[in-house]
């Protein structure tokens, strides 16, 4: 239950920061910033989905985590780690070919890692976890 | 690896959620097991087999065993 509450609090904080950022006019007509905000919203949606599914498990008196959910997380994390190495290699490759500043590239890389994890989690969950 | 969980569950008129609660996992895990998308740990396989009162090898079948024993 503690993890569920933490995930909802973090999601709310991220959403509040995003709203504050948008209110300051950073999103107005800037395609790059709008894409980044969209990605953040997708990631917050993922966190909320995980939180709600934990909440449902709690209501059904099931464990919030079991061996399957832990295995999915472990496999998705290890896969995301491998893919992220290539992502950072790509970021390094384009760093001198783009006009983006270093902090923007690092931010994009971090967001990219989160997206890679999300995609890996979806992939592992869809494929299932078999040992053979 | 295949298993007879769905068949055994139906015999006992047990829902996926009830079985999940009995063996201490999430309902999703039972869904994955029945669809053959997850091979359980020895502990979970033991708990499920114990619940049905059968030895593990009569609940979980390796593909070569399942092919050689179609009537079971």
The CATH architecture name of chain B reads Orthogonal Bundle
Largest sheet of chain B: 2 strands, antiparallel
Strand order of the largest sheet of chain B: 1-2
- What does the overall shape of chain B look like? globular
Largest interface: chains, residues each: A-B, 15 and 20 residues
Q: What fraction, in percent, of the residue positions of chain A are helical?
A: over 70%
The structural class of chain A is: mainly alpha
What's the CATH topology label of chain B?
434 Repressor (Amino-terminal Domain)
Count of DSSP-assigned helices of chain A: 4
What coarse outline of chain A follows from CA principal-axis ratios? flat
Number of domains of chain B: 1
Protein model, in words:
The complex is a heterodimer of chains A (132) and B (72). Chain A has 132 residues and is mostly helical. Chain A has 2 domains: 1-65; 66-132, no CATH class. Chain A has helices at residues 2-23, 31-59, 67-95, 102-127. Chain A is flat, with a radius of gyration of 17 Å. The model of chain A has no long low-confidence stretch (mean pLDDT 88). Chain B is mostly helical and 72 residues long. Chain B has one domain (2-68): Orthogonal Bundle (434 Repressor (Amino-terminal Domain)). Chain B is built from 6 helices and 2 strands; from the N terminus they run E-H-H-H-H-H-E-H. Chain B has a two-stranded antiparallel sheet with strand order 1-2. In chain B, 25% of the residues are buried. The mean pLDDT of chain B is 87. Classes of the chains: A mainly alpha (132), B mainly alpha (72).
